[in-house]
Amino acid sequence: MKKLLLLSTFLFITLFATAIPDEGMWIPILIEKYNIKLMQEKGFKLTAEDIYSVNKASMKDAVVMFGGGCTGELISPEGLLITNHHCGYGTIQRLSSIEHNYLADGYWAMSRDQEIPSPGSFVTILKRMEDVTDKMFKGVTDGMDNEARQQLLNTNSEEIRKNAIEGTNYTARVTPFYMGNQYFLMVYETFNDIRFVGAPPEAIGKFGGETDNWVWPRHTGDFSVWRVYASKDNKPAAYSSDNVPYKPLYHFPISLKGVHEGDFTMIFGYPGSTSEYAPSYYIDMVKNYINPKRIAIQTAKIEIMEAAMNTDPLIRLQYSAKKFGIANGWKKSIGENQGLERMKTIEKKQEYEKRLTEWISADEGRKAKFGDLLPSYEKLYAQLRDYSLVNSFTSDAFFSSGAEAVGCARNMMTLAGLYETVPDEARISVVKSELLVGAKGFFKNYNPETDKKLFVSIMKLYGENLDPEWQAPEYIKIKNSCKGDFQVLADKLYPATIFADEAKFIAFVNAFNTGSVAKLQKDPIYRLAKSVSNFISENVRGGLNRISSEVQKLNPLYMTAQMEFEKDRIFYPDANSTLRVAYGSVKGYYSKDAIYFKHYTTLKGIIEKDNPEIFDYDVPDRLRQLYESRDYGRYTQDGEVPVCFIANNHTTGGNSGSPVLNAEGNLIGINFDRAWEGVASDLAFNPDQSRNISLDIRYALFIIDKFAGAGYLLKEMTIVE
Questions:
Q1: Which pLDDT value is given to residue 156?
Q2: Where residue 21 falls among pLDDT bands split at 50, 70, 90?
Q3: Are residues 618 and 548 in the same domain?
Q4: Does the annotation count 650 as an active-site position?
Q5: Which of 109, 352, 491, 661 could lock onto 114 through a cystine, CB 3.0 to 4.6 A?
Q6: Chain segment 504-535, per-residue pLDDT in tens
Q7: How far apart are CA 500 and CA 403, in angstroms?
């Protein structure tokens, strides 16, 4: 097949002709060819090879994907790593107990032997990347149907991947860019022995809570510190007391010189997902169909969890990570919808599509090639929005910290299914073991009374927000049986089910045999879980996958149409959880008429927000004392301790924890959020208000040194004053 687009042919032919300042997430291997000149004009003092190289140590060797969903950076030759507090939040919660509550109290290892192993944690480092577009399209022809084409692409991808890692301990994946017009091979090294070094109490690391989340000005000390361990030959290894700190090829020097308005900044990290080039029908689906209903159910879950957390320190610990995960997406969706409305994104997309259609229609060749694109999108998204809503809403209701007992019950389906044929005792033993291990984590963070409240609310919202044709049969049955009084139903079900009681659950799993299947079928919570799960599998996922596949089939051609229509436009690739560079400058912004936000905040602002009556604004006594005595050490600017700053780098989810670098390539901050007015930048970048929020590295060092008394850690860092 003739490739729809080769990057080298015309993608960046006129890169600087109509440059949009500071927008974009750029591919590191192409920085030398397409970005370095502009970066240097903006103040960057290093070279492209300093950023990405396979021939020498470079910045890429100090940037890690942290836990698969965040970014982190190595800051010492002894494997010391820093990322966001919220990136490590779930792990810190799992390591905590009422007796040792590292969320509430913070924790700092005062020696290597006090660093806490964190099972399940891992970091991934990119070794190299390669354009493999030609290899991916080998054998692909214009006449192939979509299924055959995809099968061949999968075959080619697997061959490329296997060849790349043969004889190594690396992993690899081939990732599409530009909606499948270009492909890159990524080769990684993953380390699994990660130890918790320290984090401030959440009164610092999560200061401002959900009220301040996605908002500027910000005063959150959002950081945590970890250490990567390796075998004695510096290779990845499972946890062992014999392991030693990993010695990275490169670590970031840390600057105490500070930040000023207009300073060059660079973000180097793993942005998750953006959809800058999607048609208006996609934006409409997200804004008007998916987000409003998800916001409604997430609001209910947050309110229930928060009320329960305020009654008991144990419940607060159990539900902190769950509530944070829900609330982060919830508030982002609210801000995203407001931003899309404020920017009139759908209307602008529609106007763009009108002009694109006119351009297509003006030429018979273009009409034959692109003429069916937008009409096909319109038909597909009209169907896709129902399937997408049902899939996401049902997951929110039952399987993503919704009615938790129902989610727990679904896990039993695998074990029950093994008794539908001749039992495989070896497999049964493995599944039982997995269930028991999972139960330990589940019930550690589970409160039956809180779950009952969630169940009552979720069951009501599920019936109100999804049409009966999209509701699981068992739900309809039990709704009718209790006449919609889900409180009465919950009061009856929860004392009887095995899925709300750890002892009952463990005993049932341990004794599970052929006769247990019949007993399981009598548990209403299990029947509901099975019905919902089967309904999604049989009635939703098939249609969702089929329509999504049709959309994916159109996407490469639509990307090509846009590029041919606007040959002078910069088309940076959408984020896809691969390593990217974003650059810009420290910059304030106008929020509303006559309201201008400057580019930084200070410790003074934390004290101004201090309110012991409000959990999220209760400043620790030690921090108050440091402020009152002005015991700031060397971590000041203009006599104050800086806390956060903003810049106009293009970021998204996954960039959390990314290093923020100055013109010399030194670490000046840790990216952790976006300003409210620019939250919609995953779908439409707003250069006037899209701002990334970063923790000033000097505040992190101030907390480590002056607040925590763990200044010994600074001795292994390279600090530039």
A1: 97
A2: low
A3: no
A4: no
A5: 109
A6: 999 999 999 999 999 999 999 999 999 999 99
A7: 11
The pTM of this model reads: 0.93
Q: For residue 582, what are the CA distances in angstroms to 171, 192, 261, 544?
A: 25, 28, 18, 33
**Cα separation of 682 and 675, whole Å?**
13
CA distance 280 to 593: 29
Say yes or no: 369 and 514 in one domain.
yes
Beta carbons of 634 and 673 less than 8 angstroms apart = no
**CA distances (Å), 566 to each of 243, 562, 570, in order?**
54, 6, 9
Print the SS3 string covering 152-212: HHHHHHHHHHHHHHCCCCCEEEEEEEHHHCEEEEEEEEEECEEEEEEECCHHHHCCCHHHH
CA distance 79 to 246: 5
Mark whether 8 is an active-site residue.
no
Q: Do 391 and 440 fall within a single domain?
A: yes
Place of tokens 């060797």: 61
DSSP letters for 562-610: HHHHTTTS--PPPP-SS-EEEEEEB--EEEETTEEE-SEEEHHHHHHH-
Distance between CA atoms of residues 615 and 617, nearest Å:
6
For 158, the token pair is 């697997």
CA 661 to chain CA centroid, nearest Å = 21
Angle at the Cα of 131 from the Cα atoms of 125 and 133, rounded to 5 degrees? 135
Q: d(Cα 7, Cα 133) in Å, to the nearest integer?
A: 9
Q: Is 512 left (phi over 0), alpha (psi -120 to 50) or beta?
A: beta
**Does 474 map to a domain?**
yes
Residue 675 is predicted with a pLDDT of 96
| Residue where the block lists tokens 């970031």 | 252
pLDDT-above-90 percentage for the chain: 93
Q: Using the CB atoms, write b or e for 124-160: b if 16+ within 10 Å.
A: bbbbbbbbbbebbbeebeeeeeeeebbebbeebbeeb
Token representation of residue 137 = 């399209």
* Pair (633, 504) in one structural domain: no
pLDDT exceeds cutoff 80 at 18: no
- Is residue 244 in a domain? no
Residue 158 inside a domain? The answer is no
211 token code pair: 């009220």
Both tokens assigned to 546: 């089929």
Q: How far apart are CA 224 and CA 84, in angstroms?
A: 6
Q: Are residues 597 and 525 in the same domain?
A: no
Specify whether 355 is located in the same domain as 440. yes
Choice among 280, 457, 656, 690 that is catalytic:
656
In the set 86, 251, 599, 650, the catalytic residue is 86
How many independent structural domains does the chain possess? 2
Q: How far apart are the first and last CA of the chain?
A: 56
At a CB cut-off of 8 Å and minimum separation 6, what does 627 contact? 603, 604, 606, 607
Segments forming the whole domain that contains residue 464? 280-554
| Residue from 476, 474, 491 nearest 529 by CA | 474
What are the phi and psi torsion angles at 262 (to 5°)? 95, -10
Best CA proximity match to 345, nearest among 690, 15, 710: 690
User: Which residues, other chains included, contact 362 with Cβ-Cβ below 8 Å and sequence gap of 6+?
Assistant: none
Catalytic residue among 22, 50, 193, 222: 222
CA atoms of 453 and 172, how far apart (whole Å): 44
Flag whether 239 is in a domain.
no
Gap between the Cα atoms of 43 and 57, Å rounded? 22
Residue 247: burial class (beta carbons within 10 Å; 0-12, 13-18, 19+): middle
* Residue 584 sits in the same domain as residue 503: no
Q: What token pair was written down for 663? A: 């013109």
Active site residue 222: yes
Query: Is it the case that residue 34 has pLDDT exceeding 50?
Result: yes
Given 554, 589, 621, the domain boundary residue is 554
